[in-house]
Amino acid sequence: MKVFVCLSFAVAGMLAASSARAQAPAAGSGTPTEIVQVDKPKPIDPKSAIQGWNPFLALTASVNLVDNENVVGQVDGTAVTIAAGATGGAEYIHNRHFLALNGLINEGFARTPVVTRFVKINDVAKVDGMYNYFLTSNFGGYGRVSAATSLFSSDDVVGAPTTFVNVTGMNPVTIATNTLSFHLADAWKPFTVTESIGAFADAIRKPEFGLSFRIGLGGRSTIADGSFAIHPNPADMTAIEVVQLSDVEQLGLEGFAGIDGKLADKSSFTYRVGVAALLPFVNDDSFHRSATFLTRVVTTANLTYTISKWLSAVYNLSVIRDPQLFPSGKDQVQVQNTFLLTFQLGLVAKKEGPKPKTAEQLAVEAARAAAAKAAAEALDAENKLHELQRQQQQPCPPGAAVPNGTAVP
Predict the structure, then answer these.
(1) How far apart are CA 126 and CA 33, in angstroms?
(2) Which class in CATH covers the domain with range 3-346?
(3) Burial of residue 329, with CB atoms counted within 10 A of its CB: 0-12 exposed, 13-18 middle, 19 or more buried
(4) What confidence tens digit (pLDDT) does each residue in 223-242 have?
(5) Would you kindly state where each structural domain of the chain is located, as residue ranges?
(6) What is the pTM of this model?
(7) How far is Cα 117 from Cα 115, in angstroms, rounded to an integer?
């Protein structure tokens, strides 16, 4: 007998029922840490902007349940994924000034028939403050401060007793044997603080396509010493190799380019793609690598389909190259793909200003205005004609002049 049951409200590439292990990604955070900001300053539309404070708060949740029995290629048993999150903050707009304060928490845990304990697959906590001053409608200056970390400790959990080897140095060192789990990072590690200041420009700003740039001075501090990451290319296939992460201090030139918009007018599909880089000409790299080699590059992509106000399907891609976190010769590119069907409950809804009118709406209004103006002009001309006809039909009073120059007796 074959039985397959699937109740699916979230699909994530991080979970597979046949997986032999469950682990947090490279930095132990459960998701690549966004250190170079890749979102653009928010433009201010004087016609639709909500002046003053505008708070918001929302909760998200998702669950995935898969139960297998005698399914070819799958391990018998039940796999469960649960996730929850919260996002909130406030925006303040006053004329050309824009201040955004944001915070988010995303947590996810999974268990499989092989790894029967719940292991975190996503763990992100972040606060962010951004100030924009708009010199024009699409150009200005910005300043930003943010902090990001993980709330829970990270462990690499396996389905069978395994040996862990530290390959950070020249000589591998066995640090754990015959164990089902290895501690990668403490709670609140890595902890990253970033600051940046510079100028931004929205070269193109249309609903279907927007193009923006940013350049400025950026700095970051990451506390990661004592944390480990899984080495993706082990030389010893009988053991799991790990590398030790380092604290990072960087100051340098940061740049960003991004596009966003809707796939079509009135479409429920929105997209966003961004690439950001930080060239750290000031750094504390213990391996004395060049600033060019240590350049941190972040690429992100997002595609969202809004099914309703409380339900959306979201695909996210994150690719991060951050060499200074890793020992020389052991750096790795962090890649994460996620697809989520997410339920959202808005506790405090952000106020929305009037939406800009579409080209069709403007054309209709212009036609109506022209028709109303023509009707008013026609009515005015008709009234003048009636008045003239009325004057011509009235009899002339005695003594009044007539067209032949004589007076009426």
Answers:
(1) 10
(2) mainly beta
(3) exposed
(4) 999 999 988 777 777 899 99
(5) 3-346, 357-409
(6) 0.72
(7) 6
